[in-house]
Amino acid sequence: MASPNLxxxxxTTLRKRSKILADAVxxxxxxxxxxxxxxxxxxxxxxxxxxxxxxxAANATFKFYSGHExxxxxxxxxISAAEFNWKQANVNVVGSGLExxxxxxxxxxxxxxxxxxxxxxxxxxxxxxxxxxYSDGTGSSSKEIGGLQLxxxxxxxxxxxxxxxxxxxxxxxxxxxxxxATTDGGAAADSANIQSLMKRAA
Length: 202
What we know:
Layout: H1 8-12, H2 30-37, E1 50-55, E2 79-84, H3 97-103, H4 113-132, H5 139-142, H6 148-151, E3 160-161, E4 164-165, H7 194-201
Antiparallel strand pairs: 1-2, 3-4
């Protein structure tokens, strides 16, 4: 057999190709997909930081009154905001001139090389963002986004979120609710009691 040792069959017969790049990367994007479907993804076009305003208390001057009774005209502090820093992420897409202009061209081009790599980069980006969406924001030297572990903490009386210290009693409004089935509900969760336990936690 002559060099480079390609058999007659290999030399004369092409491989059967689907011409479709199968997605073996997008494997845990359920959280982002659900957020997007429910309209809970907000696009922000700029700003020094990201500010989320909220009203955290009822106006304390409410009262029923009669006739000329004196009304409470004192100011009520009911509005504040959380502040978040921008986070950045990157995926590089690289192709040489040989790959893009010569090898992936003409009749030999089964699919677009650059387009396939861009799709892979997009999936890689979404997979890593999905992982971060469940994180506490301390990964990659705290450059990572703060996810559900930060916002919905196991111990909601600790930590600072958006500049709001949840350990301070006056900031109790910024704490999430926790419920331990055994400790708070009196029994381990199972198929018989899970619904009632969830109602008690609401």
